[in-house]
Specification:
alpha+beta, 3-stranded antiparallel β-sheet, 13 helices, 12 strands
Length: 413
């Protein structure tokens, strides 16, 4: 130790503030770093790397100069403006490079180590560049062994920051990680300060000096930039996430519509009806349920017009409230009605008889029907659908008198 060493006494309030800034920046950076592996394209990835790197580097730089303000010495201190700005650039760029390397492709320890090395050396470079920016009536001497320890701390802290950035999820874990990162960043700085000895007797002059009294301005700007980056990109991510979720929901609806809904009527198709039958079998009461299939086709075998099927649907829904109606083929409607066989027969026969008479009188369409009951006819969805397939005569559960004209049509079928 030199005879004329100037003692540095740290203000505990400013030391605490430097830690809070480090925690704030770490938390913001960890939040933004989530976007690196989640990026859908190179543009999104670049934005996430720049944002999280600027937040982390800016936080470390702001913490450094707040901690420098905490160092109270009996000499006037100013800072070289160019070196001060350079130290901020070094911090941000090194953090961007470290995050970019560690976050590229599939996670690997080699990439984490390389990224941590870049980032740690950059953080150490920022610290000692900031120290070199000091202008005062004193010179600075360093203990090389302590300097080496501070660099090791910087590299280890950077590796830890990168690991946390790509492995921690959830607000509580993020906050805990940020608290740990704050300790690591401050530990590096104050270890570096312990390596420095300020000796009276020299004066380093610079024409572009930044008085220490003005130092709160750039540090405040730096902290605000951290918050600004964090808030702006978090809002952007939230908006993009909301849009992505909405698009995903719309896509799911479209897929479900194409896969499980009849396009013409909007009714469940055969695939969806099969699911509904399985669900109903699982939750059915002792009375069970019936499947009633109605087949309507032109006398020449053509499919019925949409108007015919719509009319049938409306009358079924009006006369059998609560029934599930599906369209399994262009000429097929399948009705699922809860209840015992006799109850379903009593409720459905009048409507089916009316359909049979109307189509027989019309002559343009053939009408056939059939039914199956669960559990009377089985407990398997596909078997029940097969059992309920329309026959050339009326369903055995619903056997009203058949008009002669329709009898002839059914024989031809």
């Amino acid at each position: 130790m030199h005879d004329h060493a100037i003692q540095c006494i740290h203000d505990p309030m400013l030391v605490a503030l430097s830690y809070l800034v480090a925690v704030l920046g770490s938390y913001t950076a960890l939040q933004l770093a989530i976007g690196i592996p989640a990026a859908r394209n190179q543009r999104d990835r670049t934005q996430a790397v720049l944002a999280s790197g600027a937040a982390m580097g800016g936080a470390i730089w702001a913490m450094h100069f707040i901690a420098m303000l905490a160092c109270q010495m009996d000499v006037q201190v100013t800072y070289d403006l160019a070196l001060t700005v350079l130290s901020a650039v070094i911090a941000m760029v090194s953090c961007m490079v470290g995050l970019g390397v560690a976050g590229s492709g599939v996670f690997a320890w080699s990439k984490l180590g390389l990224g941590g090395l870049f980032m740690g050396l950059g953080v150490a470079g920022m610290h000692y560049t900031g120290m070199a920016a000091m202008r005062m009536a004193a010179t600075v001497h360093y203990d090389s062994s302590v300097v080496a320890i501070s660099v090791v701390i910087a590299v280890v802290a950077s590796c830890a920051a990168l690991w946390l950035a790509f492995n921690m999820r959830g607000a509580a874990l993020m906050l805990g990680s940020a608290l740990v990162m704050g300790v690591a960043v401050c530990g590096m700085h104050y270890t570096g300060m312990a390596a420095a000895e300020f000796v009276d007797g020299a004066f380093c002059f610079s024409g572009n000096q930044l008085p220490a009294a003005m130092l709160p301005v750039p540090t405040t700007v730096g902290a605000l930039l951290i918050l600004g980056f964090g808030i702006a990109f978090t809002l952007m991510d939230a908006r993009e996430l909301s849009l992505a979720r909405r698009a995903e929901r719309e896509r799911d609806v479209r897929v479900q519509t194409l896969a499980f809904v009849d396009r013409e009527t909007g009714l469940p198709n055969r695939a969806r009806l099969s699911q509904l039958i399985v669900d109903r079998i699982r939750t059915r009461t002792a009375d069970g349920f019936s499947l009633i299939t109605l087949r309507v086709e032109g006398s020449d075998g053509s499919a019925p017009t949409p108007g015919v099927m719509t009319s049938l649907l409306e009358r079924i829904q009006r006369n059998l409230p609560g029934a599930v109606v599906a369209r399994t083929q262009p000429e097929h409607l399948v009705v699922m009605v809860d209840g015992r066989v006799d109850d379903v027969t009593k409720r459905s026969s009048p409507l089916i008889e009316q359909f049979a008479r109307e189509f027989a009188a019309d002559g343009r369409y053939r009408f056939t029907t059939n039914s199956a009951h669960c559990p009377s006819d089985g407990n398997n969805a596909q078997w029940l659908l097969l059992r309920a397939a329309p026959k050339s005569t009326m369903a055995e559960h619903f056997a009203p008198p058949v008009a002669p004209a329709q009898e002839r049509s059914q024989r031809r079928a």
